């Protein structure tokens, strides 16, 4: 989640009662988070969870705080040992990475004021709603192309045919669809809601630009 890199000692928290163990600059490692965790999340250099996805509580709060997060790891609380120094990178594509040790990183800064004016509008191709608000901070003329197939992949994660053919699909696929659609009236309602959410997120990020 995000495009940043965080480093620090691992702090594995298995019980909310232990949250005070997390010090500023620690890498918070937990099974998952909820609103009760937010005060300690603000102190973390990075967040790693066993469970969750791009729209889970940890992911949403990490975006708001600008803290790199790797969610849905499965067994992070078992693999990462308390006190170990690690580097959490969300700057290498869609998948976050966790490295042993404190790796050297390089930051390149570009001053907006040094960019020359041009006579044409430069519009963006946007396919990941989760990055829309970050992309909107870059000088732009709006969204020239919203890649629907990427929105489906990033925001929904289910092939349209699995939704259309839901009553006829095999039991394993049906269980997978039911898992992601939990909390919605039906798989089709889930698909429509998430697609609308993805498109609306991009539109909101770039408003009032086209």
UniProtKB/TrEMBL annotation:
Q: One Pfam family from the UniProt entry?
A: PEP-utilizers
Named cofactor requirement(s): Mg(2+)
GO molecular function terms here?
Answer: ATP binding; pyruvate, water dikinase activity
PEP-utilising enzyme mobile domain ranges (all copies) = 23-93
UniProt entry keywords in alphabetical sequence:
ATP-binding, Nucleotide-binding, Pyruvate
**Similarity section:** Belongs to the PEP-utilizing enzyme family.
Put simply, this protein is called Phosphoenolpyruvate synthase
* Source taxonomy: Bacteria, Pseudomonadati, Pseudomonadota, Betaproteobacteria, Burkholderiales
Record gene name: ppsA
């Amino acid at each position: 989640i995000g495009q940043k890199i965080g480093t620090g000692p691992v702090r594995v928290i298995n019980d909310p009662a232990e949250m005070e163990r997390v010090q500023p600059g620690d890498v918070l490692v937990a099974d998952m988070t909820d609103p009760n965790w937010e005060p300690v999340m603000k102190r973390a250099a990075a967040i790693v969870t066993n469970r969750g996805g791009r729209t889970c509580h940890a992911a949403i709060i990490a975006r708001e705080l600008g803290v790199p997060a790797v969610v849905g790891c499965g067994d992070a609380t078992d693999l990462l040992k308390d006190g170990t120094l690690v580097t959490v990178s969300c700057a290498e594509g869609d998948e976050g990475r966790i490295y042993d040790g404190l790796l050297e990183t390089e930051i390149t800064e570009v001053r907006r004021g040094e960019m020359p004016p041009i006579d044409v509008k430069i519009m963006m191709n946007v396919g990941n709603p989760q990055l829309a608000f970050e992309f909107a901070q870059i000088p732009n003329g709006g969204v020239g192309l919203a890649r629907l197939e990427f929105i489906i992949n990033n925001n929904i994660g289910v092939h349209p045919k699995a939704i259309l053919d839901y009553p006829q699909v095999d039991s394993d696929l049906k269980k997978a669809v039911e898992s992601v659609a939990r909390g919605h009236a039906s798989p089709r309602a889930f698909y429509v809601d998430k697609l609308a959410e993805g498109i609306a997120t991009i539109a909101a990020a770039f408003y009032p630009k086209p």
